[in-house]
Amino acid sequence: MDTLAGVVQTILSFDVTLWALLVLGTLLGLLIGVLPGLTFVMGVLLILPFTYGMDVDASLIVMVTVYVAGTYGGAITAILLRVPGEPNHVPLLWDGYTMSRRGQGAQALGWAATSALVGGLVSWLFLAFAAQPFAQIALSFSSVEYFVIVLLGLTSVLALSQGSVLKAFISLIGGMLLATVGVDSVYGELRFDFGSPVLQSGVDWIVVMIGVYSLGEVVTRFANRFGGDATTQQPERIRTVVPGPKALWERSGSLGRGVLIGSLMGTVPGAGATVGSFVAYGLERQFGKYRRDVGNGSPAGVIGPQAASTATVASAFIPMLVLGIPGSASAAVILGALLLHDVQPGPDIFRTQPELIHTILAALLVGVVLMFVAGLLTAKPMIRILKVPEPYVAVFIVLFSFIGAFALRNSMADVWLMVAFAGLGTLMNRFGFPISPLVLGAILGPLAERFFLTSMISYANDLTVFVTRPISGALMGVWVLVVALVGLQAFRRSRTAITSRHEGDAR
Amino acid sequence: MNRRRTGRRSTTLHAAAVTVAGAILAAACATPQTAGPDRGAEGGAPALPDRPITMIAAFGAGGGSDQVARAAAQVMERSLGVSVPVVNVPGATGNVGLNKLVTGRPDSMAVLIQDTLATVPLGTSQFQLDQIKAVCRLQNMPSALLVRKDTFGGTWDGLAAAAKERPNEVKVATVGRGGVDDLMLAALTESQTTAFRAVPFAEPSERYAALLSGSVDALYEQLGDVRQYLDSGDFVPVVLFAGEPIAAYQGVPSATDLGIPAEFVLPQFRGVVVHADTDPALIDQLDDACAEVVADPTFQGFQEQVFSTSDSYLPTAEFEQFLRDQEKVMGELLQRYNVAG
Which intervals hold domain DUF112 (chain A) (predicted)? Predict the structure, then answer.
């Protein structure tokens, strides 16, 4: 209970300036989360130079709150505009956006905010009271287990597709191939560059994501002359956005799965919010109570991924503080900032610098709550965006797509690639190829390759390690189950010949 | 940890809060370039640059390259009078970042490290040495082969015995194929007949987790990057790859003790380079800025923490020569040990 007392004391000792920093950090995180192309890692980086002049407490508080809120902000645009502000919000497009098209945008936002709160709080408890055992779990994962997790993520996208499994598969492989362009991370070989310096730098999946989703969506809507249901189906009055206790209890399964997945994925270095979000969505789709509705505007498809995303934040600090290994890129930036302040996190820090731990815990706790409050306060005005005639909103989406693609690496080449992917996305929409597998393939493909090669080098090309190691063996079992389910789905569908396509039924 | 509380002076923090508000505006513009403090060309001598000079960190955020880039950029901003935004352009052992430098306009800098330089003689680089010009070397730091404290008796003899008993089965976590790590392991193989299996991990955190968890038996790393595990006693160095002895590790054999010729020992370095077409006058100014960086007390504290040696700083001409020499040595080593990517 020393920890709890320490945290409470730390929070009480915050002066006006620190509170101002907490609020500013939260707002900044939300803003960065909303902008596609500006990931929360870049958000934390943007803040870094301003923290040099502050003391350790102040700089920790700002960076931690930006990081926490950054995992939530993108949910708002994903749900309302089908623009994923962050890669981990891609799963929210499937159900969140569908909900908002149905006039349930307020509920979707409420669920997203609540799930982020629950994910943040529960993983905070893990960090505060179970950091040691969690860190030990993290250490029992090696590249073998990472590979199987990523494989699970890749396969689950096939399960998500409601149209042809073959088309989803083609899209997935396409995404994985796109990601092989450039220099590979294990052997340093240049691949598929066709002599062009633009391609030598590789195709960043954020460029793919912004192109096919944000700009591509605008092009598709433009081609339809913005016709359809966007403004017509909004209810006149939005009654409530926060789910009540009964609804919460009903959805506790989704919340629990999301939080656990997020806490685990945050703890193991090499995964993170995006992988956690995808895996959580896959679980809801395969094993959740509402699995039949997931993909069709079910809150479960919002809850799982968002709870997982925010749960990765506190848990990313577990290996960082216990072992000195940052659990995510953002945590790595914060670790770097600590080093510049002459603070060395590592195995001894819980004992030697409890005050620092209390500051981090306090910042996380307050950050999570502030993010929730800010999320609720902004939800209602945000819903009004849907009342704005779509062409005006589209202008801003286009603007942010271009800025986002450029901001990624300050490269015009990325902007042109993004435009090309917008074209590809439009064509894929037109010919009934689902887009999400493409994006997922581009995100997870390189991870899968790297973890597979590392495992193979480490175990002298012995393929059996994937089943003989206990954790990876168990995960492999789950994978076989998922593949069987997908096969069954494909078989049933080919008999009933449902032609509706996954992204298509949203409009 | 007493100094944490003393630093809480509300005036500086108010200033900090205002700066963060500025950061929000900067973020709203969404270009990291605008995120630096707005210094403009206030009061600078006419010879000083009048536009921001980007510093490319060719590795991921939070790593050693990133830290040195950010620490140096901060001092250089003061000295040059323009903002020096740091951009992370990671990928392919730093080649994506260096490629960005040489294909862009000559108005930015990049941090070059030993591992990236090693890809030039290896033939996998996306730049050549004549496409860049040296500015200064900021760090020169020892690398080491490390093991967990409770394994192999914490000594080279223990590790070497295991490697001889089970050739190619004792695993060493490295950065990537064909890099300096591989060359140094090959040099050990030649002088000590120890054969290791190098397992590449691109992310530092994965390398450290691999050694902590026992997925690998040893780790090739700069001492400074694993300071926390050295301080906690979890990792112990068994061989040092350093130009000069390190006070804290007198008893640990150095690579030269193990029969590797001194000129073949390649410690890690980090330095600043620019596009070959950069105005020589600007390079001079950048080098002056480097001199201020290494004189800065905060930066010196940082140097100490990462075991950076006393001869770390090399001005333009010497660093240029150093780069060429290193490229030559690495070329020879690659041939000698027949290491390929």
Answer: 21-440
Whether chain B has a CB inside 8 Å of the CB on A411: the answer is yes
Tokens of A187: 């052997």
DSSP A504: G
Can you tell me the distance from the alpha carbon of B63 to that of B68, in angstroms, rounded to the nearest whole number?
A: 9
Residue A19 near chain B (CB below 8 Å): no
Domain count, chain A: 1
Residue A383 domain-assigned (yes or no): yes
Residues of B in contact with A62 (CB under 8 A): 20
Q: Retrieve residue B163's tokens.
A: 């490697």
Instruction: List Cα–Cα distances, A126 to A239, A315, A326, in angstroms.
Output: 35, 7, 16
Please report whether residue A246 resides in a domain: no
* Domain annotation covers residue A262: no
CA distance B252 to chain A (A): 23
Q: Any residues with CB less than 8 A from the CB of B180 and at least 6 apart, and which?
A: B114, B115, B118, B143, B266, B268, B330
pTM equals 0.79
Is A324 close to B92, i.e. CB distance below 8 A? Answer: no
| B20/A404 touch (CB, cutoff 8 Å), yes or no | no
- Contact residues on chain B for A342, CB-CB shorter than 8 A: 301, 305
Residue A275 resides in a domain = yes
Which of B20, B116, B207 has the most A C-beta neighbours within 10 Å, making it the best mutation to test the interface with A? Answer: B20
A18 touches chain B (CB under 8 A): yes
Q: Over its length of 341 residues, how does chain B's per-residue pLDDT go in tens digits? A: 333 333 333 333 344 444 444 444 444 443 443 333 333 334 444 456 788 899 999 887 767 888 899 889 989 999 999 989 888 877 777 887 898 899 888 889 999 999 899 989 988 788 999 999 999 999 999 999 999 999 999 999 999 999 999 999 999 999 877 778 888 999 999 899 999 999 988 777 788 889 998 999 999 999 888 888 888 889 999 999 987 888 889 889 999 999 999 888 888 999 999 999 999 999 999 999 999 999 999 889 888 888 888 889 999 999 999 999 999 999 998 888 876 54
